[in-house]
Amino acid sequence: MPGPATTHEAAPVTDKIGIVAGGGTVPGQLVATLRDRSHPYFIIGLEGQVQPETLDGTPHLVVRLGAVGTALDALRREGVRRLVFAGSVRRPSLAELRPDWTATRLIAKMGPKMFLAGDDALLSAVVKVLEGEGFTVERADRLLDGLLAGAGYLGRHRADAAAEADIARGVAILRALGPLDVGQGVVVQQGLCLGIEAIEGTDALLARVGPLRRDGGGGVLVKLRKPGQNERIDLPTIGVATVEAAAKAGLAGIAVDAGGAWIVDRAAVIETANRLGLFVKGISGDAV
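== UDP-2,3-diacylglucosamine pyrophosphatase ==
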């Protein structure tokens, strides 16, 4: 196996924030916030996943997921020690990853079983390894105001008694599955589980359950944290596309984990839910 590539001398450590940017709009919103605050940042854009517009006019480097050494060298040259993970990331197979020497070394630290584990076990291992490399991993919602869901309703629509019962059923299902590190979302209608979110993601789940919807009352999408979830990298997330997909599937509304889920572009989510007739509610997974 070849040795590591020669690294460049690291810059002095600064308060600059490194953004590891996946898909979706959260990375762009984070960039806009940091610009408004005149806070220095540097983006590591994940190849094939980050939106090109996120990188326009920004200091950045695009890397494939397996090019860990290249990414860490760039962050050190920029004097970055604070990292924020933002945006969706499609989990690759080991063959797709094509790990470089540094990635191979880190995979060895995590152990091969990490690739057979659920997303949260893998992400927790990633955080542990990065901390061992001298980086601090922070939550995106600590920097981006309004991202974290609160308790109660957004918008003007409300859940009826049937929807509340479906929310409680969804919470029970996710509580049971959570310890297995499987899924953050479930769709329930009339007490029946129409679908559980797995590796396909929320939008694909909603597309899948649309034809399964039964005659009668609407149904709900419930998204909750898993027990022990590493909240610095991955929290349940909804946005405008989620509301639109839920409406297309014929659902009555969406319930998300208050204090444990992200709402991307809150104002647009409220406007879309109002227009399409869906409720959006922040709930406590422990209180339902």
